[in-house]
Amino acid sequence: MTKLRDRTARRTATVRRKVKLAAGTSGRARLSVFRSSEHIYAQLIDDEKGLTLVSASTIEKPMREGKKTGANIDAAKAVGKLIAERAKEKGIKDVVFDRGGYLYHGRIKALADAAREGGLNF
Asked: What is the domain extent for residue 38?
């Protein structure tokens, strides 16, 4: 149990550090990524106002259609493209990437690369 508690505490501390860094810049939303064993989620958050500006995930109905699972790299790429499209509609281009304490590989990296290809700058 101690390993799980330590890992959770370490991840929480990493997220808080990133939030502090992202909140210091005005005009840049924070692209926060969260994953579970079955789904992946992305949100653009304005830390100054405490609002979620845009969100996308694999649990949304358009994403679930035609996909076997939301727990693979293809699904993460689709979420990255979707969050970039929705951000464009809101006029958001510059963001700070918050990987949420997860290692930057696999699904997290695929989502980030797809968001960059979609037009987000980070």
From this structure: 2-117
> For 55-86, what is each residue's pLDDT tens digit?
999 999 888 887 778 889 999 999 999 999 99
> Residue 29 and residue 121: Cα distance in Å, rounded?
11
Within-domain flag for 100: yes
Give the residues across from 43 on adjacent strands.
32, 55
Q: Cite the beta strand spans of the chain per DSSP E.
A: 29-35, 40-46, 51-57, 95-98
Tens digits of residue pLDDT in 7-38: 888 888 887 777 777 665 667 888 999 999 99
Residue 122 included in any domain: no
Q: Which residues of 41-60 are buried (b: 16+ CB within 10 A; e: fewer)?
A: bbbbbbbeeeeebbbbbbee
Q: What is the pLDDT of residue 3?
A: 67
Which CATH number belongs to the domain containing residue 29 in this structure?
3.30.420.100
Is 63 inside a domain boundary? Answer: yes
